[in-house]
Amino acid sequence: MxxxxxxxxxxxxxxxxxxxxxxxxxxxxxxxxxxxxxTENAYPPLxxxxxxxxxxxxxxxxxAEIAKxxxxxxxxxxxxxxxxxxxxSEGQYDLGMTGITIxxxxxxxxxxxxxxxxxxxxxLVRGDETRFADKAGFAANPELxxxxxxxxxxxxxxxxxxxxxNEANPRIKLFETFGATVxxxxxxxxxxxxxxxxxxxxxxxxxxxxxxxxxxKLGTEDFGFIFPKGSDLVAPFxxxxxxxxADGTIDALNKKWFLDYKMGQ
Amino acid sequence: xxxxxxxxxxFPWWLVILAVTGAVLFWEVATSDVYGxxxxxxxxxxxxxxxxxVVAYLGACALGLGLAVMGLSRHLWLRQTARLxxxxxxxxxxxxxxxxxxxxxxPGLVWLVNQVAEPLGLPLWKTRDFPLIARAVIALxxxxxxxLAEIFRAGLQAxxxxxxxAGQALGxxxxxxxxxxxxxxxxxxxxxxxxxxxxxxxxDSSLVSVLGVSDITQLAKVTAAGNFRYFETYNVAALLYLxxxxxxxxxxxxxxxRLRQRER
Lengths: 265, 264
What we know:
heterodimer, A: alpha/beta, 10 helices, B: mainly alpha, MetI-like fold, 80% helix
């Protein structure tokens, strides 16, 4: 009995130890197939233009690694976020990436990969803000306004986690671009903008004391790649994402882009 | 108030002020870290902006002239078709038109082409082979053709009837009358509004950023997302657009002045 248990333990241990390698072997080989990926380069540090104007970021690195493991040839195209889901949904591109939150309403239009990143929102406020310091304080004062882009994760987090779940709440002022929400915050039109931690830190840094981050992190959002409905790439990409997670590649990328990389330098 | 008889002969102080301010701003921009980096990236969009504006404008001119001629046709159905097109296109915001062309018209065209290509055994077209920049140009072209058609129509109608009759008396054909009598005179009259619309097209070309075409505006959007400095980045965009639009206005004024001289 004892030996059997020990043997079982050994087998389990061995299986675990070899799991990443075994995974790599079982990844499908797509024989150099061309995959057209569309992105906007407007979501640092996932994809953005660095100071020299080159397109870089977490997602580019991750896709390069996935391409190696699946044996695909990647071709990049650019499209704006507004047009991305319709374009991918119509099959104009094989894959869209720009830190897209996996949401059920979007699943009616496109297929999602498994999550490759979990993002958290921070509360960005003016540097001299003293009226509130967390989401409850913001929600309690009806005078306070927030800005968001319609249909984005910060918008939904604002509606369902900070405010009362009413998507038409007049306390949310809608703007077309994220930059406009930040300018409205600086100008005093609104008092709060939600953004993910990296961008939030970047804005605080660039503002020279004009902005700060308050409160706890909000709303955990899972990001996935999007594919046209029924795409045969979903399964291979999921397998590749799993292998990236298993062998620590994802952790290394997180360290590289979220900790070590200094935005705007 | 008596209007100044010769406002054109004023010394262009506004231009001096603008040129000096522009030079200072460009110097400031080029020597600052944040502005300089933004300028270098945004400058890569100038060519795209120029290509989009020029190609869409030339296309719109051709289409607009055709529509104007149609609108003055002897045939009721031609006139009404032109009218219908102009009224619809003028009434739709360009940004909506851009999305229609990109996601309804373009896939539709691809489908049509494939209906023809398939039985002929030709290679099938995919929507993604239809570049977004081409869709953006088509949308701007369709939108502006309606405005330009109205300008052309006004110009053609303003040519004195006697001129056409004189041409008829000389035995010129309809095409010859249009080519040698009506169009040259109309063109001189409509050059200023045509020029204005070209300047407007340069600015409206920024709408193609909705589709992600890498023009100055899209690069500004993307750059600002990465450097977290929206205000500074859009300042650079404004400076680039202003340089182009004012430069264009000056060139157009020169051409107009030369045409007016020739008239005398």
